[in-house]
Amino acid sequence: MSKLHLTTFSAACVLVRLLAACGSDPDAPADAAPPADDRDSGAPRGDAGSAEADAGDASDAAPDRRITWDGGGDAGAPVVLDVWAQGGTFCARVQRSTGTTVECWGLNNTGQLGRGDVTPPVAMGTTFKAFPIDAPDAHTFKVIRTAGPARPTICGVTADDDLKCWGGTYGSSATTASVPAEPLLTGVADVSVGPSHSCAVLTDGRVACWGENPSGVLGMGTSGGVAQQVPRAIPDFTADQVSTGANVTCAVKNGEVWCWGTGSLTGNGMLFNAITSPTRVEGLSGIKKVQANTFTFALAEDKTLWFWGVGLGNMPSYNPARVLDPAPDEPGRLMSDVEDVAGNCLLFTNGKVRCLAVIAGVYHFDEMPRVSDAVRLEPWCALSSAGSLRCWGSNHAGQLGVASSHLASSAGSVELKL
Questions:
Q1: Spatial distance between the Cα atoms of 306 and 118, rounded to a whole number of angstroms
Q2: Residue 313: which domain range?
Q3: What are 346's strand-pairing partners?
């Protein structure tokens, strides 16, 4: 039987929207030895790209730590088959010589890791080491979605189309630290977990939502009220994909986009009035994916990108507008060749990833260093065709798999060895 060992190598720097490439060698070894136990580090929150994280003399520098598999009598290294890295808890499907598991790391302040315990809320309960979800059907999860630390809910859809949710509860202080035996909902194709509410697309196309209802985000024709703990299907509405954002919900139906919630986020030209039932966004067709947040991206079948809402630099739009990718000789060039969108990052047909940066109110998309063969994109991570996983960001939730104080160098993204 193989054993887990800790290896030492330097990591890569991270970013919060603004990317900065650094000249240090990400493979150069660090000097100091790591602490003996990294199960729940309790290290203070910090931005791995900050001066505090990167500065210090050599005697204080701790190495970046990764968990690797000692080959021993087993053939081959672990391969990451899938990743879900939205919100503050990160999960991956990992194929090991002993079998395939679904393992999670990151926030565990309400039991999001699904291992039956709650990490004390030091450093937001961050756990940097990946642990398998402790549930007999965990390995069957075909999708896992999480929200942020404000509403730390996590949901997974099993191979049997059962929806199971644990962690925090909308509108309540109650927590569930283990995956429940009984599903919250059956016949589920996909789920989107947002900061105040969640919605699931059922196998028959209906959309069922639950949680808090600011600005009518549950789509039931009303706004506010007590948080709804049980999913309810929106009357007379079906969709192919749904996305829950901050105070807005959007869905794709036969290439069209429908939104409801805060008026300025719905793409219908409104600034203040809430839309409490699904309403079609005029002027859009041929859309294959929508992502709702403080602004919404809509990815078209022709691989171009639309947006509306606020937050994309100094160019708010309350109706759909094309995302531009200006060049010196072509200032009006459209963003093109986009395969997927997740968070503030875009995956392109050439396998590269570019992420949003805003300087002085002007937006642009910078290429993520060391990501060149991505086939799967999540808001904080990209998975390559060879099964390697690279993540980036502020590391506030431990998505880099190591405490910020242990990052020895910087270059934009960090390869995780789960």
A1: 40
A2: 247-292+294-342+344-378
A3: 341, 354
